[in-house]
Amino acid sequence: MNLRFLVDSMHGYVAKWLRIMGYDTIYLNHVEDNDAIRLASDGRILVTSDAELAKTAEARGVQVVLIKGLTEEEALRLLTEKFNLSLREDSLRCTVCNGELEEISLEEAARTMEMIPKGISKFWRCKECGKIYWRGSHWRNISRQISSLTSFEHG
Which 3 state secondary structure label does DSSP give 15? Predict the structure, then answer.
């Protein structure tokens, strides 16, 4: 199943982490409810803390996850458990614009970047905005965070 999300304006952290995990995620910033519902109606899961928006969207056939009263971490854990989310290595997304990432050569990265990080040879570029990504020391923290989200502990 190819899950796609639409996250409302107060949950940028959730949108960013869904993108890091490889899920197509539109982040809404100050969009009218009707526009949000229209965007979600093409098969996206609406993630919101707005109970009124959730109710209206569900009445129009949109799948909704209401995260009202949850911290960003709790919301991510809920989504991860509900949809059995995991890191999708084959579908990396740009955290800035949601574009798909494509692997590029060291030479291509060197043409764009002022300095190549030492010891890094694998790079990705966003097909939309051109942002360059690589797995540096920060990747350990990202992996740890994703592991903590995907290790379900039911007490």
Answer: helix
Does residue 110 sit in helix, strand or coil?
Answer: helix
Name the token pair of 70: 């949850």
Token code pair at residue 143:
């992996």
Fold (CATH) for 4-83: Rossmann fold (3.40.50)
Task: Give the pLDDT confidence of 86-144 residue by residue, as tens digits.
Answer: 877 778 899 999 999 999 999 999 998 888 888 888 899 999 999 999 887 666 666 66
Query: What pTM value is reported for the model?
Result: 0.85
Own/partner long-range contacts of 52-60 (Cβ < 8 Å, ≥24 apart)? 53/8
Q: In angstroms, rounded to a whole number, what is the distance separating the alpha carbons of residues 41 and 111?
A: 41
What residue segments make up the domains of the chain, in order of their start?
Answer: 4-83, 101-150
Tokens at 3, concatenated: 């899950």
**Residue 36 is encoded by which pair of tokens?**
């949000």
Alpha carbon distance 109, 101 (integer Å): 13
Interval 30-68: pLDDT, tens:
899 999 999 999 999 999 999 999 999 999 999 999 999
Q: Return all residues near 25 (Cβ < 8 A) that are at least 6 apart.
A: 4, 5, 6, 7, 15, 18, 19, 93, 98
